[in-house]
Automatic annotation (TrEMBL):
<dbReference type="GO" id="GO:0009738">
    <property type="term" value="P:abscisic acid-activated signaling pathway"/>
</dbReference>
<protein>
    <recommendedName>
        <fullName>protein-serine/threonine phosphatase</fullName>
        <ecNumber>3.1.3.16</ecNumber>
    </recommendedName>
</protein>
<feature type="domain" description="PPM-type phosphatase">
    <location>
        <begin position="119"/>
        <end position="370"/>
    </location>
</feature>
<keyword id="KW-0464">Manganese</keyword>
<dbReference type="InterPro" id="IPR001932">
    <property type="entry name" value="PPM-type_phosphatase-like_dom"/>
</dbReference>
<dbReference type="Pfam" id="PF00481">
    <property type="entry name" value="PP2C"/>
</dbReference>
<feature type="region of interest" description="Disordered">
    <location>
        <begin position="26"/>
        <end position="84"/>
    </location>
</feature>
<feature type="compositionally biased region" description="Low complexity">
    <location>
        <begin position="69"/>
        <end position="81"/>
    </location>
</feature>
<dbReference type="GO" id="GO:0046872">
    <property type="term" value="F:metal ion binding"/>
</dbReference>
<keyword id="KW-0460">Magnesium</keyword>
<feature type="compositionally biased region" description="Low complexity">
    <location>
        <begin position="26"/>
        <end position="48"/>
    </location>
</feature>
<keyword id="KW-0378">Hydrolase</keyword>
<keyword id="KW-0904">Protein phosphatase</keyword>
<keyword id="KW-0479">Metal-binding</keyword>
<dbReference type="InterPro" id="IPR036457">
    <property type="entry name" value="PPM-type-like_dom_sf"/>
</dbReference>
<dbReference type="InterPro" id="IPR015655">
    <property type="entry name" value="PP2C"/>
</dbReference>
<comment type="similarity">
    <text>Belongs to the PP2C family.</text>
</comment>
Amino acid sequence: MCCTVAISNSPVFSPSSRVSSCLFCKTSSSSSSPETVKNPSSSSPSSPLRVLRVQKPPPPSPGGLIRNSSDCSDSGSGSSSIFKRKRPARLDIPIVSMGFGNIPAAGREMDVVEVDGDGYVVYCKRGRRDAMEDRYSAAINLQGDSKQACFGIFDGHGGAKAAEFAAENLQKNIIDEIDKSTDGEIEEAVKNGYLRTDSEFLKEDVCGGSCSVTALIRKGNLVVSNAGDCRAVVSREGVAEALTSDHRPSRKDERDRIEALGGYVDCKLGVWRIHGSLAVSRGIGDQHLKQWVIAEPETRILGLEPELEFLILASDGLWDKVSNQEAIDLARPLCTGTKNPEPLSACRKLVDLSILRGSLDDISVMLIQLEQFY
């Protein structure tokens, strides 16, 4: 898997800065796969962007472990022994599924994120904001099963804190709730995972909120949930099928719910907003509007079958400018019926099309090749 972050030429990332320590990827807590970071010294000095690449970990050794990259044999026996230093003992690091989402503070000046994973790709591009507020998460081989995975796109507003928190915690909370469920009611477990993440974030007493869309692949089912206006669209033999419905105050049932709770919705600069402020009606966080902005998701469950080709999860930066069917039509030739699929190129083209049509927002697109999980 190859991750790429393009970072603007800011004082934080001056030519003398050590960029190798500033990765946008974060693996699960205490044990993580080793990563090889290359400083792109070959880049042109006049280029306005700097690039970090995280290479896919090497194949496992026969014992099921990855050797630390610093473990190499001594050479140059002609050197005087007085200058030789004893190398540390080998480190055996267990292989773990990699999850992504959190972007360190030093990386907030990034412009572009590219990830080419196993069965999925992600492409994110910063809009006109000072810092990227979108985040994502991806975990494969859940519970040691290659047919189980969980993915998410998170669109922050009022800062990136809520999106970061959701990217780091929502997937774990959903899996925990599923494990605790005695009746196997997965829709209720996913809802509880969203509500738990929201409750935990509110305890942080941090401003801002985040829209979310997640896709859980488990036991031959595709479980798609959303809170806010991030959207999931699947290609069913080339026909676009939206699996989520945007939660906006302009939606009649959402407006009725808000007004029944004593709130109001009005139109400001052509956009319907809650109390003239927020343009989405569900999400994680938004403490100042929590009475009306709920975190309860809507969920749809489909059985995985060959006619479901690929799934697109994206923030509203894409969907505000590109229709569901346009997205499928553009991506499909690069993803199906070809010996060399280029899903990452498809994501780039979708983002470029949205920008060409005038999007100024952060845009995040994840494409999941469903055939890998049948």
